[in-house]
Every structure is written in structure tokens, then in C-alpha cells.
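Chapter review: from sequence to fold.
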Amino acid sequence: MFATLLGSLPRPPLGADAPRRALVEAAVRAQETAGIEPVTDGGLPGASDPVAAWQVTASLTERAVKQVLRGPYSLAWSTEANASLREAATLAHAVASNSILRALAAAGCPLIEIHEPSATAIGTDATERALFREAHLRLLDGLDGTHCSLVITGGSADAAGADTILAAPYASLAVDLIAGPDNWRLVADAPGEIGIVCGALSPAADGDDGPEVLLWAAAYAASTGARGPDRVGLATASSLAGLPWPDAIRKIERLGAAARLAEVPASEAVSSLDPRAVSSRAAALGYVGRDPSRGPRSDHDPT
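The C-alpha cell string follows.
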């Protein structure tokens, strides 16, 4: 089980004149400490060349580093309101981005994430479905030597259907399961050989950061399509950039801890879980992982 980011971190608390490399290094070190891999540059702005940006990040760590790109469908949605112009822009972005993906693969980038938040707008529109399919087939055309992952955050894209979302040969699908719980339908419909990254850690400051939801999400994803746990990862549901740095770091530390917990035997994991997530009888008594002589767990009892 692995853990990774879907989206950005806030700017590290360095001086206003800190160079981008120093900011990226702070983001990388935070992910390393949390047990995150593959790591990213934290989504920090200021990099115009994706290949050079990946090379800088990769030079700062021994861990696998992924490069994140905005997908052609979302790029066009952000610039073109006119439907006919947007279709041409989407396909042009796909062709241009294909060259970038090839260059990243040639440079040795092991994993490329394509973020398509605008996929949540496709719905049942046949024209939009066809455009998304064609754009992503062109985007991945002839690509070899790297793992490409499609990422959908900010809502649900299940209405478009797995035949649309996964028409191109993506190796994995990452979905936001907080803002888009209906994305579970895409997970269930995805072929078993496609990896699933469960974006189940809320980006909200007051979100539930306990391991129970994360472990349930991972187990359910593993059960779909006879996928198995080796093809499943955990992630933030979307960007953490809106949080204060300490809050974002606390969240990714909990994400990393949940991924490690997923690897241990169930008999060892239960002591770290809320009793209600383990059994109904234990939930009623509050005894899992505790000395029963202490009685039920109170809301203020940290053990």
C-alpha cells in the first residue's frame, strides 16, 4: 500500500525570497517524513518546463517522483467558453501534451499524473464523452516506458461512465471520494488490472483524518474487479494548498500512517482503530485494543 498527494501543498514557511528549489526541497522532505511515495514538487508554481521541473524534484530524493500535468479537456475548459472552439482547443492541447509526456518518459519519469477536474462536467452528453475519449487517446498515443495515471478531483465523473473515462490506456485511476463519492461507481467498473488511488483524506481543516475511512476505502477498492491490495493506493482527496502548513503536514503524516497500517496484520492493526470500525459488539462496549476493566471509552480518553 502506498500513499501520495492528489493536488498541492501550501507554500512551505520559508522566507519570501526563498528560491523555488528550496521550496520544493521543503515539500519533498515533508513527504519523505510522512512516508509519502511517489512524491511531488508540492504543486509549487514557477516551473514552466515540466521535464526540468521533474528533474529538479528527482534530484532531491531517492524516492520515486511523479510529474503532474493538467489534462487537455480541463485546459480547454479553462480558456474556451465556445463549444466548437473548445473542441479544437482540447484536441490541440492533447497533441501538444503528448510531446511533453514523451519527453518525460525519455527523461526517466516513472509516473505521470494527468489531472482532469473538468471531467466532472461531462455527464451524459454524447459529444462531450466523445471529445474526452478522443483527446485522451491522442494524449497517450505512442507513449511507452512510464506509468500514466488519470486523476479526477472536485466532484463525481461517474455519469460519463468508465468507458469514457478509461478509454485511453491509463495504468491507474485516482479519484476524489470526498467531493465525489459517486466516483466509487468508476472504481467498481474499472478493470481489475487498472490501479486505483483512493482520494479519501479530506482536504478540509476539520475533516476526518482517522485511519478507519482510509483503510475501508483501500479494502473496498482492492475487492473490486479482483484487483487486490497491490494495485491500490491512498491519497489526499484533492489539494491541501488552502490549509496552513502545519495542518497540511499533519494530514499527510496521517495519510502515511494509514498506508503503513494497511500493511500490518489485522490483529496488530485493531489497537489503532476506533472500536466501532472493527465490530458492532466492540463498538457497544468500547473494548477493542483496551483493557476491558477500564470500562467504555470516553470522548476524552485518548487511549
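Two observations follow directly from the output. The mean pLDDT is 89. The chain has two domains: 2-263, 275-303.
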